[in-house]
Amino acid sequence: MQNKQKKNAWIPSYAVFPLLSCVTVNCIVYFGIAKLAGEWKHYDLTLPFDRAVPLVPGFVSVYLGCYLFWIINYILIARQGEEHCIRFATADMMSRLVCCVFFLLLPTTNVRPVLEGEGIWVTLLQAVYNMDAPVNLFPSIHCLVSWFCFIGIRGRKSVPKAYRVFSCLFALLVCVSTQVTKQHYIVDVFGGIAIAEITYYIAFHTNIYRLSKKVFDRLYEMFFSRRKSACGKESEV
C-alpha cells in the first residue's frame, strides 16, 4: 500500500475520498429529500419556548459564517490520522442516514416571521429565507455538523486547547443562531447534537468503520495508483 499522506499536505491523500463522501451524502440527503417530500404533509413542532425566543437578525452572520468553520474543522479532523479520519467520516455519513429517516417519516416546517426594518443583517436573513425553504428542520444539520466540528477534535492533544474550547463555544453559538434567526425549533438543536454524539460513539467504539475503509482504500488504489502509473509512463517517454 502506498503512503497515503504526503509530507506537509494540506489535505492528506487518505482524506480526499472520506471528505468528498461526507459532502456527497449530505447533499443527496438534504436536497434530495427536500425535492422528494416537497409536497408531503409537514408538521410544525414549534413549542412555547420557540415563540418566546426573540428574532435577532445579526446572528445570520454566525449562521452563514459556520460554513467556513465546517471546512476548517473537517480538514483539521481529517489530519488527525487515517483511522480517525475514516471513523469520523463514517459517523458523519451515518448521521445523515439517520437524518434521512427523520426527513422522510417526520417532514417538518415552521412559520417564519415577517422581517421588518433595514440593514445588512435583515437583508442577509431575508436572502436566507428566500433561498432555503423551511423544510428538513428536525434534526438540525447546522447544529449536527457544528457539533461534529467540536467532538471531532475533543480530547485531541495535537490540537491546541484554546482552539478546542473555541470550537465548542462556536458550535454552541451556531445552535443559538438557528434559534434567533427562526430557522429551527429548539428540539432541532437537541436532535442534531444527540445524533452527532450517538453516531460518533458508534463509529469510534465499533468496527463498522472498516466497511467505509474498504471502499475508500479501493477508490484510493483506483485513482491514485492509476495517476502515478500514468505519470510514470509520461516520464519514460
TrEMBL record:
Where exactly are the transmembrane stretches of this chain?
12-33, 53-76, 97-115, 135-153, 162-179, 185-204
Keywords in alphabetical order, please: Membrane, Transmembrane, Transmembrane helix
Signal sequence region: none
Residue ranges annotated for the Inositolphosphotransferase Aur1/Ipt1 domain, each copy included: 66-201
- Fetch the Pfam families from UniProt: PAP2_3
**InterPro entries reported in the protein's UniProt record:** Aur1/Ipt1, PAP2/HPO_sf
Record's protein name: Phosphatase PAP2 family protein
Identify the species of origin.
Blautia parvula
Traced from the root, the source organism's taxonomic lineage reads:
Bacteria, Bacillati, Bacillota, Clostridia, Lachnospirales
